[in-house]
Amino acid sequence: MDRNTLKEILTKVKEGELDVEKALDALKDVPFKDLDFAKLDYHRGIRVGYPEVIFTEGKDINHLRGILLDMINRDANVLATRMSKEVYERVKDISKNMVYHEIARILIVNPKDVEKVGKVAVVTGGTADIPVAEEAAVTLEAFGNNVVRIFDVGVAGIHRLFSNMDKIKGSSCIVAVAGMEGALPSVLAGLVDVPVIAVPTSVGYGANFKGLSALLTMLNSCAAGISVVNIDNGFGAGYIASMINKGFFRNGVVK
């Protein structure tokens, strides 16, 4: 449940279009629904403006099916992240009202055509970083943001980035996804006047330490205006970028 749904229920009660008992039934799972193996936080959309997101990796398949079955009946755009193709094949029979994004490894439950605002650029250092970037991009789009994708413009061929700056300009913020040494966010932050959200990936050879070297590079960047999320955390970057982008519109600052 989100804030708009709650307002709609309360307005109908006030105007006599909905009786109190039916309103209570609609609100029975606020603040959460207890499935024993999971406590589904249906109050989150009211508190923070975004619905609960399901992290699927590591969950028992029967538990995951139970969670999805309950959420199918909710009128909300719900994301299930880190879902492998194998797991999707085991849950896709639950409903036709789901869309799976294989590269991003995201399942969208009750997908909606939401109005999109602003612009967020999602940029990668290499092609191997695209799955993490797509996790960010699909998250952004599901939450109502326009996204421009610029892939494979890392520092090994910096001219590729410069030739795409026109696409990046005008963004409310930038999600910069890179593995190896993780230099891309620093370069971008020195060229733009908006926040850069740096996403280190686990792409790289042995001394990359599965993304640790890229993470440390980004944390130690000399360029200002960078925030850093955890290794391979495309969802987290997309979530923060959505808050920044939509904040511009709430506060009347439209780029």
Structure description:
It holds the Pfam family AIRC. GO terms for molecular function: hydrolase activity. It comes from Caloramator australicus RC3. Residues 118-250 form the PurE domain. This is Circadian phase modifier. This protein is of the alpha/beta class and 255 residues long. It has 2 domains: 14-109, no CATH class; 117-250, Rossmann fold. The protein has 11 helices and 11 strands. It has helices spanning 3-14, 20-26, 44-48, 61-72, 85-91, 130-142, 158-162, 165-168, 184-189, 212-219, 234-250, and strands at 33-34, 39-40, 54-55, 78-81, 98-101, 106-109, 117-124, 145-150, 173-178, 196-200, 226-228. It has a 5-stranded parallel beta sheet. It has a 4-stranded mixed beta sheet with strand order 3-4-6-5. The longest helix has 17 residues, at 234-250. The chain is globular. The two termini are 30 Å apart. The relative contact order is 0.11. The model has no long low-confidence stretch (mean pLDDT 86).
